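Tutorial handout. Part one gives the primary structure; part two gives the three-dimensional structure as tokens.
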Amino acid sequence: MLAAAGIHSRADLERIGSVHAYLQVKAAEQSASLNLLWAMEGALTGQDWRVVAREERTRLLLELDAAKEAAHR
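Part two.
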């Protein structure tokens, strides 16, 4: 999934960030779920994806909405 979106390394993910990486993956693979966003954020922060989903959900969803809105401008 990540490779199909042009993300080939942790450095790529760090440079792009989890939210923009998720948007790139979602554009390439419509079946990608929000669990992927939680997992990528967890990989970047050293947290389990379930902790991210529980504790960072609102922040990440707000960032995702803002990124989608900015892309449509």
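Part three, for discussion. The two ends are 27 Å apart (CA to CA). The chain has a mean pLDDT of 96.
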